[in-house]
């Protein structure tokens, strides 16, 4: 998420309810949580995803595979990875979500929501309904797990993505801004805590 990102608040409870009846299969695409049998094809997609966000950068399959198995799908990972696959088992789309509890809303109808971390469809599989099928699956999963909404960020410059999200019924949260703290600011701020704890 960059400083120019805008946050999307998606799908009210009423819209989530309507999504329950949506099919999770589009043509020869199948949507479900990632399984071990899909790991190698998912590694291919994650390599493509890395290149998409980091033009000119190449990362080894071994590094990606380790990150997938150890971190993204590890026992302590908060993420759930949903994949769209063809009949031949090739992964052509990915949605990564986290189910979280609200800090400020304790009531049952508002305390749970779904955070969409990533939605990506292979370049060769776009404009075929894969993204919508993934979002429909996510909406159904979120509703079945008591979530009242789905939230996600999108770059302000991503006009195509914004149009797609709004076609799902998502609404832009105009009053929200996105912030990021990275190096060297991250280290400088962390140093304040270190100095305070050491009495320096």
Count every helix, treating DSSP H or I runs of 4 or more residues as helices: 6
Count of domains: 1
- Main β-sheet, spatial strand arrangement: 2-3-4-5-6-7-1-8
CATH architecture: 3-Layer(aba) Sandwich
Radius of gyration of CA atoms, rounded to a whole number: 19 Å
Sequence of secondary-structure elements:
EHEEHHEEEHEHEH
Low-confidence stretches: 1-15, 17-27
- What is the average of the pLDDT values? 87
Structural class: alpha+beta
Q: Given the C-alpha coordinates, what overall shape results?
A: globular
Name the CATH superfamily classification: Gcn5-related N-acetyltransferase (GNAT)
Report strand %: 15-25%
Strand segment count: 8
First-residue to last-residue Cα separation? 35 Å
> Helix amount, in percent?
25-40%
Just give the CATH class: Alpha Beta
Per the CATH scheme, the topology name is: Aminopeptidase
């Amino acid at each position: 998420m960059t400083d120019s990102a805008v946050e999307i608040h998606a799908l009210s409870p009423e819209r989530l309810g309507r999504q329950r009846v949506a099919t999770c299969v589009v043509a020869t695409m199948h949507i479900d949580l990632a399984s071990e049998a899909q790991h190698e094809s998912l590694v291919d997609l994650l390599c493509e995803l890395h290149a998409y966000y980091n033009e000119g950068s190449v990362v080894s399959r071994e590094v990606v595979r380790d990150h997938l198995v150890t971190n993204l799908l590890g026992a302590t990972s908060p993420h759930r990875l949903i994949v769209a696959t063809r009949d031949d088992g090739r992964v052509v789309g990915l949605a990564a979500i986290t189910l979280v509890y609200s800090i400020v809303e304790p009531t049952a109808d508002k305390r749970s929501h779904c955070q969409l971390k990533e939605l990506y469809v292979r370049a060769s599989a776009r404009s075929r309904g894969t993204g919508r099928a993934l979002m429909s699956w996510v909406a159904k999963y979120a509703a079945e797990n008591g979530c009242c909404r789905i939230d996600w960020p999108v770059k302000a410059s991503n006009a195509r993505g914004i149009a797609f999200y709004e076609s799902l019924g998502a609404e832009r949260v105009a009053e929200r801004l996105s912030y990021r703290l990275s190096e060297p600011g991250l280290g400088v701020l962390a140093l304040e805590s270190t100095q305070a704890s050491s009495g320096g």
